[in-house]
From TrEMBL:
Residues at the catalytic site: 121
PANTHER family: NUCLEOSIDE DIPHOSPHATE KINASE (PTHR11349)
Domain Nucleoside diphosphate kinase-like: 3-143
Taxonomic source organism: Luteolibacter luteus
Enzyme Commission number: 2.7.4.6
Cofactor(s) of this protein: Mg(2+)
Residue runs in coiled coils: none
Family, as annotated: Belongs to the NDK family.
Presence of the UniProt keyword Flavoprotein in the record: no
Protein's UniProt name: Nucleoside diphosphate kinase
Binding site for ATP: 11, 59, 87, 93, 104, 118
Amino acid sequence: MALETTLILFKPDAVSKGLVGTVLNRFEKEGFKIRGMKMLYLSDELLADHYSHIADKPFFPSVRDFMQESPVVALALEGEDVIARVRDLLGPTDSKAAAAGTIRGDFGDKEGDAKMRNVCHASDGVEAAAAEIKRFFKEGEVF
Ligand code: ADP
């Protein structure tokens, strides 16, 4: 077991559907602790950094437009093995393939944009989590 902090983004679909509290409650019920939380609008520059691994994919422009539909809520969440456990709670990228009981299975889009409108981003490893927390939070904003 390792005490870790992960970076979660409540995507614009979560914000517009009023799902932030419901999903946050799932994280808190697991015993994870909020260390930082804020709402922000993602600039082109921030999105290019955050999604550099998909920047050359044909769907990237749609992802960028989607992520700029509204502000997002960024969360720094701490807990034992929180990085992998939050990824498990989310389920796979494609909400249609996500099991009932997972966050994407319960709340993600089940129609056209199932792979994109999938409620939350969460860091996929220790290095990514450290880089992403630095990207989204300034010094003094994580407690
Ligand atoms: P994850 O967010 O599950 O780690 P990726 O890092 O592979 O997945 O992709 C980043 C984001 O890009 C996804 O969460 C999703 O919003 C979007 N995305 C990924 N694959 C597709 C796709 N084939 N079509 C549309 N959007 C996609």
